[in-house]
Amino acid sequence: MKLIINKVRLGKRSYPIIIGKNILPVAAKRIKELKLGTDAIIITNSFLRKKYGHNLVKNLKANNLTVKEFIVPDTEKAKSFIQINKILTSISEYDKDKRLFVIALGGGVVGDLSGFIASVYRRGIPYLQIPTTLLAQIDSSIGGKTAINLTAGKNLIGAFYQPRLVICDIEVLKSLKKRDIVSGLGEAIKYAVIKDKTFFNYLEKNVHKLLACKDDTLITVVDKCSMIKAEIISKDEKEENSIRTVLNFGHTIGHAIESASSYDKFRHGEAIGLGMLCACELSKELKLLKETELNEIEKLIKKAGLPVKIKGIPLNKIIDAHYHDKKFIGKTNRFVLTCGIGKTIIRNNIPLKLIKKVIKKRLF
């Protein structure tokens, strides 16, 4: 199977996204070729350390690189000040005559945390992403958004800091639980709804193959989603002209659901699926989206195994959490909506009454 290489084009900060099967064993060689430094800091979780980390360390050392590993919990709660302080303190104690760079080996949590650490230590050291979940391979590893959470909301502290390389090995996705694959499909559906009706139709026809982790289908989806995101990031790196904003489709209410449930009830992609349905309901209420298209989107979300009802979270908690959405301008809300599959529109100042109405429709 040939390698696919997409590229985020940001001048001197450009970097490749390498996609293939069984490419993790040669990752160390590619990392060495980048000349990022001589001393690798690997941030991962305990499962991935056993599954892939040992061989990665072995291969890095064979390429004359030193390695120090940090193990973090595999939950959103890892993105905290406590965890940041612990790792940064340890790195500073280790950092004597070193040329450090960071490797994020994991999903979205590890990627966000690693990127943030790389962005703030010594005002920035190089880092790269080796995403190990479908969601991370198609979305969170690309684009340079790094962040940690506050009690008030998700990803409220962070920075734009681009990786130097993203390596996506689809073979690692086969070690995931089904729920993790399903969660990734939430973001894949998002890309189809915001940008590509043909891709939406592809997902409708092939979702069963994705759930079964078929090689060709995984490659196609990782390639397509990463290509869409790379093109958007290349045009609007720091969300300064609303091009990148469309990537937040479903995220205003989705993040609020995650925060209101203390990150315990829903995986990220599950919450985004629910957020997309709320955004679609808003779009229908504002006469932007036909009911037939809303039903088509809901059918695919359900077919992918994602929830279509919000269970066990009070409306007031979701509403309180949504006020912390980063797209708000002062007290004015800002939603990414859809005016048809493959098309988006940004609307400001949507009445609270209407927001409550569409969320209530999804409460169970």
Helical amount: 40-55%
Q: In what range is the share of β-strand residues?
A: 15-25%
CATH fold-level topology of the largest domain: Dehydroquinate synthase-like, alpha domain
The rounded Rg comes to: 20 Å
Mean pLDDT: 94
Count of helix runs: 13
Total individual domains: 2
State the separation between the terminal residues, measured CA to CA: 45 Å
Task: Please give the number of β-strands.
Answer: 11
Q: In which order are the strands of the major sheet placed?
A: 4-3-5-6
Q: List segments where confidence is low: pLDDT < 50 over at least 5 consecutive residues.
A: none
CATH architecture annotation of the largest domain: Up-down Bundle
Classified by CATH, the class of the largest domain is Mainly Alpha
Per CATH, the superfamily of the largest domain is: Dehydroquinate synthase-like - alpha domain
Content-based structural category: alpha/beta
**What shape does the CA trace take?**
globular
The ordered string of helix (H) and strand (E) elements is: EEHEHEHEHEHEEEHHHHHHHEEH
Q: Could you give a short account of the major beta sheet?
A: 4 strands, parallel
